[in-house]
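quick one, 440 residues, struct below
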Amino acid sequence: MKITIVGTGYVGLVTGACFSEVGIDVCCVDIDKKKIENLKKGIIPIYEPGLEEMVERNVSKGRLHFSTKLSECLDGVSVVFGAVGTPPDEDGSADLKYVLDVAREVGTHMSDYLLMVTKSTVPVGTAEKVRKAMKDALDKRNANIPFDVASNPEFLKEGAAVDDFLKPDRIVVGVDSDKAKSVMEKLYKPFTMNGHPVIFMDIVSAEMTKYTANSMLATKISFMNDIANLCEIVGADVNMVRKGIGSDRRIGQYFIYPGTGYGGSCFPKDVKALIKTADQLGYSLDVLKSVENVNDRQKSVLFAKAMKYFDGNLSGKVFAIWGLSFKPQTDDMREAPSLVIINKLLEKGAKVKVYDPVAMHEAQRVLGDTVEYAKDQYEALIDAEGLFLVTEWPEFKFPNFNVMKKLLKTHVIFDGRNVYDVFDMKENNIDYFGIGTRKI
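---
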């Protein structure tokens, strides 16, 4: 079976590599010539555990190919996946330009039946726009070639994307024909043989499922952040509250950890897009609007604690930042809370030294020379007035506190992920500020 995937970002590259891993012949297409040339050389544009080895393995076995020309990757292909970006417009809606460009190009160059599958996160109704774009392109050629469209949203977690694809909780597929369903059943058979379920549904419901899932998870995060802030006011410990509610099977233990807010490429964009879709239809998603507002506010919580601790005077002070990516096991800094904290510190005249195990190159691209880049976590602490722990990388969880105290000018930690224990901090004579924790 041969398939083509358009777009080599997180979704496209992981999808292509994982399908090739189970023996499918895959061609990944991208208009970025430099990226494609690098991929052919085994240079991966993103950090994702296990991905580089998988790409190298399947390229060497001749199952995974890369190209800049979609027209050359359609012969004998059963399925074309559109995995291009859908960046938010200024009003928060998803920009479908690249999605529809792919559909038009497929319609322009296809010669036999194929199934056009949208893998990108797109608003409800996109499949019909894709169908129209392909038909219009075929009509211009006076070509009467049958095709189907489908929706196959991704549910990959950055930092665990390869494992999520190979061992999915579920595979959601939206189709409107028996033939399309048959093609997708064949494509995903290697995964269903291991017991991973494929949930078939209509296309509109599949499109809606992706946005609903991400918005639900974002809601849990913002809810717990709001509760954490209230815990501080009333003197409760949110870690105890979290354990108390997490044992309830109706609530569960996942996504109820308070922190500095969600970031990344999915949650912020998808929440905005779903809010905008509802607004356009005359319905206000008030809960999600509050989720977004809480998240925006939460990204400034650590900064507010520092302002209070230093009596509003941060000018000339040096602060260390541990963790820059929006979460561990990725170098993605899109919508990362670290950026909000850094910018606010700089606005107050502070100097910032940063360290992240993986995201340093990305940080240099995003932040330029506005901050100082440390070689390791301890170098970042030298002469710093305090530490902001923003991303809970494993190597930050058990540091040498004696060394830290020797390096820090002021023994204070602002912990945005509640990595450290308040009692341990008291024993080490470190002023400690977590999220929703009691002051000991």
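The CA atoms of residues 316 and 350 lie 5 Å apart.
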